[in-house]
């Protein structure tokens, strides 16, 4: 197992830090509209307490996206330098499987409110949901929680731009990059919403995702960094492939999170390529090469043939990703 995909431990800096901002091809059938078309003039906006960093990040993320047809939203924070960047951060997207991180956070938050630990069955379901992106486990937990409790968690977490999917279609939850960054921030810093045990449990699972699902935001991260990631992918008749990745990067002087959401991709590989271009730019600008090993490279071709897209109206039981993943 790569060194930086070791058991997650939140850095002392993160413990002290204040809470900050925070799949088969689709077929013709009724669909939920994708993100509203963003202006071609949309630009990356960054702020930072470190001289020159905001301008560099803005320039490098813009360059990484140059010439790409994917509609892309980005939100990131870096507590170490007081940095924040956003691009179309309030545009909404179908969540696909990235919502599974929110489902687990809701489960942990609800269990804490009930003054109980997760049952052995809940732990088994949560582990498969996060580390394998198992859809059946997610559907079971989603039904158990209900959209009412998911909505209550979202309110408590300040994720006010997120709307749970209706009729059991959790993969059609509408999300924004900004809210996903808020979730990452909640998971990596003490707060009144998620307990320390809850945060460490979820981050531990996000640190243990199977090897062929470690693509996306971890691309280019410095060796020695603890990586926590959750990805999502879904193809529908409109807006093509939705491909998303959220990642938190801690230890060895690191304390930052990246959320990248994309749609209008012709292939899953196209979406992955776009996300990884952004990630490499961010890691290069925020990384501390002297404190870690060589940058890590994700799998060139995710082997997720056993995975299924989240349930959607045109495929209520989901569909296998048989030979639809194309290399980028």
From TrEMBL:
The keyword Lyase does not apply. One of its GO terms (molecular function) is hydrolase activity. SUPFAM superfamilies: beta-lactamase/transpeptidase-like. Residues 1-35 form the signal peptide. Residues 123-262 form the Beta-lactamase class A catalytic domain. Keywords: Hydrolase, Signal. Gene3D superfamilies: DD-peptidase/beta-lactamase superfamily (3.40.710.10). Pfam families: Beta-lactamase2. Coiled coil: none annotated. InterPro entries: Beta-lactam/transpept-like (IPR012338), Beta-lactam_cat (IPR045155), Beta-lactam_class-A (IPR000871), TAT_signal (IPR006311). This is Beta-lactamase. Residues 286-328 are annotated as: Disordered. It comes from the Bacteria.
């Amino acid at each position: 197992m790569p060194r930086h995909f070791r058991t997650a431990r939140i850095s002392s800096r993160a413990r002290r830090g204040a809470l900050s901002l925070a799949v088969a091809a689709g077929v013709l059938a009724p669909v939920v509209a994708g993100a509203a078309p963003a202006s071609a003039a949309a630009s990356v906006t960054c702020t930072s307490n470190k001289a020159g960093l905001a301008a560099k990040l803005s320039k490098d993320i813009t360059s990484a996206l140059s010439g790409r047809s994917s509609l892309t939203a980005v939100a990131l924070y870096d507590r170490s330098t007081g940095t924040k960047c956003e691009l179309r951060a309030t545009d909404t997207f179908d969540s696909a499987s990235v919502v599974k991180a929110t489902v687990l956070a809701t489960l942990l938050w609800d269990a804490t409110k009930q003054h109980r630990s997760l049952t052995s069955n809940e732990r088994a379901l949560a582990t498969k949901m996060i580390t394998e992106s198992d859809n059946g486990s997610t559907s079971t937990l989603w039904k158990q929680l209900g959209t009412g409790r998911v909505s209550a968690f979202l309110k408590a977490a300040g994720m006010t731009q997120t709307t749970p999917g209706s009729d059991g279609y959790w993969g059609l939850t509408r999300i924004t990059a900004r809210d996903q960054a808020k979730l990452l921030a909640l998971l990596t810093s003490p707060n009144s919403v998620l307990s320390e045990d809850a945060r460490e449990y979820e981050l531990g699972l996000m640190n243990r995702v199977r090897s062929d699902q470690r693509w996306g935001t971890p691309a280019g991260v410095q060796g020695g960094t603890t990586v926590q990631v959750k990805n999502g992918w879904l193809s529908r008749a409109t807006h093509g492939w939705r491909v998303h990745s959220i990642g938190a990067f801690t230890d060895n002087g690191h304390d930052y999170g990246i959320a990248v959401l994309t749609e209008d991709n012709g292939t899953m590989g196209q979406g992955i390529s776009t996300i990884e271009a952004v990630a490499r730019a961010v890691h290069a600008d925020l990384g501390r090469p002297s404190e870690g090993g060589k940058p890590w490279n994700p799998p060139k071709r995710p082997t997720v043939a056993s995975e299924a897209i989240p349930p959607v109206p045109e495929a209520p039981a989901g569909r296998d990703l048989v030979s639809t993943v194309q290399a980028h």
